[in-house]
Description:
Layout: H1 12-19, H2 22-29, H3 36-47, E1 65-67, E2 70-72, E3 76-78, H4 91-101, E4 105-108, H5 116-122, E5 129-132, H6 138-150, E6 156-159, H7 169-173, H8 189-193, H9 211-219, E7 224-229, H10 232-240, E8 245-248, H11 262-273, E9 278-282, H12 288-296, E10 301-304, H13 306-338, H14 354-361
Bound molecules: flavin mononucleotide (FMN).
Amino acid sequence: MDTSKLLNLREFEPLAREQLSQMIFEYYASGANDDVTLSANQSAYQRILLRPHMMTGNAQRSMKTTVIGQPMNIPILIAPMAYMKMAHPDGEYAMARAALSHSISMIVSTTATVALEDVAAAVPNAANWFQLYLYKDRAAARALVERAESCGYKAIVLTVDRPVLGRREADIRNNFALPSNMEIKNFPAEANREGVSAYHAPIFEDNLRWSDVSWLKSITRLPVLVKGVLRGDDARLAIERGADGIIVSNHGGRQLDGALATIDALPDVVQAVDGVVDVLIDGGIRRGTDVLKALARGAKAVLLGRSLLWGLALNGETGVGHVLDLITQELDLAMALCGCHSIADITPDLLADEKKIFQNSV
Ligand SMILES: Cc1cc2nc3c(=O)[nH]c(=O)nc-3n(C[C@H](O)[C@H](O)[C@H](O)COP(=O)(O)O)c2cc1C
């Protein structure tokens, strides 16, 4: 479908719903239990209002930044997401190509439907990262990390908020299963042969500990980011074990329902981390102003999730590209209207929190 008439990220979802089967749409869209966290992630951004600067002479703007020491043209990455071939036959290939043509890094999931080597080969100049769900079998986990390292991924993202799967009732109702013509290509061959679905994967570690971060650091030269942190004290523990970056995330509301919105968790984490490593965030980001608010609260970059799956479902690589164009243009507009020349100009004083409004009115 031609998405070029769509004006913003939210317009993609209802059209994708029409296009996908109920089982697939709801697998992508739903959160856990009552979707409290899923909706809080988005609504929390709407409670944060902006105090823009005027008259800064910012006709020329740049979104260039550095994340864990890696240069980026735009402070946006593609969040790791499972099973992209369910959205479109080109699956992870289409996502990766759109990412590369927009100079955006994609975080390829352990549960991808294209092997990590094949994604890498399709986008040879990309600066992509690999997301790891730790396997109970550490030798198999190590082999997976070594595969990612040897085909050029630039960082490992260890997801820590899935010791067990959150309860997604839509999936239970729909008897969710990966379509039989697809495989989780990064799994050890015997796991797929045995028909292990990642959905109930007994191969994932359910006894995660901070020492696993130390272990991961000991087996790879790549930087390691820890994804799924919602508290400053946990972020400190991750850093003590060697984490090179923290991703504030509640898995898009798919794990613990009732967990706080990520943008509300961010200040505690940023304060605890105190600039020692970079902090990134995902969850509920649908507007350029959301990106600007996250950066103003101290995030170095943001990850986009579901909106890209809707673009992929509607029009493959072109649809993903359209989503990336819209959010990038919106961020540029938000910077223009807030008086920012560069990412460094996106500072906390742009946020009109209650305390600052009070201070400014007396
Ligand atoms: C369909 C789907 C699959 C996901 N798969 C993974 C995954 O394999 N690994 C992971 O770390 N996070 C996974 N996530 C979580 C995302 O990385 C991200 O945290 C979340 O989607 C961001 O929120 P948003 O969708 O509101 O943008 C998944 C999310 C969705 C919606």
